[in-house]
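Researcher: Quick test of sequence recovery. Tokens follow.
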């Protein structure tokens, strides 16, 4: 059952048994992370099993805390270390299975590599917030960042530099680059 689903989706399926304290993952876990797919005494080793970036460790700890509080389902994203690929973004979703008394007996879940999706989102956000040619924040982004800083209630200073004819020069270079792109040159002119 679940092994076939995992193979079709490229996801890692996992199941945790509360009574035996054993985590079992689909074979892909062993292939990708070079760790055993069956992990006895999971609670004792849980912090060492998923190598996360320090800034993502809090997200993982929050997930563990929510599980202990009895949350039935939860989802999070964080970066996990893959030995061959470095840190990759993953989406982790889980659901608790309870017995007739309401006691959690199993936790089932899925790890999905969303690294390419995250990179595309980041690139799109950057592209939407900056000028394509100069890579300077656009007006909307600048106003938003300034308002965030002002909300902190600290003293601030803003320095505005007016470059004479910058818009004229920027528009002309942009037109030149656009023209080269139309001719198949694609990119900045050679110096």
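Model:
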């Amino acid at each position: 059952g679940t092994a076939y689903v995992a193979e079709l989706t490229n996801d890692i399926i996992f199941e945790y048994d509360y009574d035996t304290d054993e985590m079992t993952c689909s074979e892909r876990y062993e292939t990708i992370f070079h760790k055993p797919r069956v992990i006895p005494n999971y609670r004792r080793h849980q912090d060492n099993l998923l190598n996360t970036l320090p800034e993502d460790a809090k997200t993982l700890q929050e997930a563990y805390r929510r599980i202990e509080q009895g949350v039935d389902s939860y989802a999070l994203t964080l970066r996990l270390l893959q030995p061959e690929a470095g840190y990759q973004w993953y989406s982790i979703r889980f659901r608790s299975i309870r017995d007739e008394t309401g006691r959690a007996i199993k936790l089932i879940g899925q790890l999905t590599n969303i690294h390419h999706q995250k990179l595309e989102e980041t690139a799109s956000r950057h592209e939407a917030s900056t000028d394509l040619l100069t890579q300077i924040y656009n007006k909307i982004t600048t106003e938003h960042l300034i308002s965030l800083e002002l909300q902190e209630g600290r003293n601030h200073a803003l320095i505005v530099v007016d470059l004479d004819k910058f818009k004229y020069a920027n528009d002309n270079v942009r037109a030149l680059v656009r023209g080269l792109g139309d001719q198949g040159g694609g990119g900045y002119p050679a110096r």
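Residues 92 and 142 are 34 Å apart (CA to CA).
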